[in-house]
Amino acid sequence: MVILLIALVAGLAASSVSPGWAAGPRVVVTVEGAGELAVVEPDGKVEAIRLGGRPHNLAVSPDGRQAWITDSSATRVWVVDLASREVRSLATPGQGPHGLALTPDGRRALVAYEAGSGLALFDAATLDLVRHVSLPSPPHNVAVAPTRPEAWLTTLGARHLLVMNLEDPERVDRVAVAGTPHDLAFTPDGRQLWVTLWKSRRVLVLDAPGRQVIGEVEAGETPHHIAITPDGRQAWVSNHGGGEVTVFDVAARRRIRTIQVGQFPHHIAFSPDGRLAYVVSEGQDEVVIVEAATGTVRVRLPVGRRPHGVAVR
Asked: Could you tell me the pTM of the whole model?
């Protein structure tokens, strides 16, 4: 492990509470255009933690103590202690880290980097680099199966998914698909994997244990990121080209509604109870908070210039 920087970073400013805000969970947002991590506390105040570079994707540990963030402009990831605000910068074996996921037990952090086509596994407690695995194609996004020791990855420009056995990381299989996968998300039981296809209007549904496509739904213009509600009943897809989110019934594989959220929507996260969805609108510099049951936009929360990733704990 190489630690490039260790610093205690205080918030630059705390904003006032946005109108309509109701107490909720802590929300963490990468603000790529400002080089910051925005932390929205339960009282609605937003604190900015200075990181530098281009904070892109992020994942928060199951216990809510750590935030892991990729810097898409360098060879590093940041790890932020959300209680003390201490920031550590860890070197990655390759340039352009992008996809990021934590194992369900919180013990391992998986960082996919595009230049060099590899995946790094870090020990989340010690922050040591445990293993580096070369991949057959440049990885983009990564998701860990909730019930099996598997990591699934999308890859740049390829018409397949990669599947890594986390008990034997050198064992990597390919699953062919019709289209170019961009993002992916598992249902909580691990049985289904939903995959957005870049430069299309399509979202694939896979039988994850069987590793085969079992269905397809039509979203909006350029489906980008995807998230599954905590109860596994709905899939939410951000349509990057249309400024909206399409909501699907997972069991029926049908569209429920479309929600206008603003320009260039990116990542989506849910409150632990599933009542609220948090959608990043890069073009509006906001996190849009939506009532999941009705699709009603409750609050538009300014977080800084060009936000990208979001996580809730």
From this structure: 0.93
